[in-house]
Every structure is written in C-alpha cells, then in structure tokens.
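Our working data are protein records whose layout never changes between entries. The record below serves as our worked example for the rest of this section:
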Amino acid sequence: MHVEKTIDNAKSCLCLGCPSYTTHCKMKNSDEIALDMSHINDTAHMELMFCAFEKSNCIHENRGCLCQDCPVHKKYQLNNEDYCLNTGGIL
C-alpha cells in the first residue's frame, strides 16, 4: 500500500528512534529533517519515513527494526520492514 507523505505521518514515524538510525546519520541529516515540512508531499527524498520515501542514503547496516511497532506501518497495513535498507522494504 502507498504511504502518504504527510506531516501527520512524519510526526507518527518511528524511524528517528530506530537502532539502525545511528547518531552519525541523525547528525548528518539533522538540517534536512528540521526543515519546514509544509512541502513534504512534494519532496522526492527525506531521511525519514522510509516506507513513504525510499531507502536511506546513510543507513547501511541493520541494527534492529521498529517498523512492526510504527503507527504509520500499522495505519497502512504494511507487511515489510527494513524500509531504510531497501526501497519497498523486505519480507
């Protein structure tokens, strides 16, 4: 199912708390994540909400996954996880 790129979904997203999203990645992408999200629907890529955008350009190792616990994942009845490592996630 297609995940909508909305401010509400971004606020519910657990990606920033994921163990795979290292402190290094968070610091590297903090400016992008802190940007005004009023144009989130028109944004091609963000280092956030990987189920709506595409895989991360920073995360390269699975250190754990929170997708199954994420409200966005549940809202859209997604079956995959590890969206940060693989666009579209993996089963």
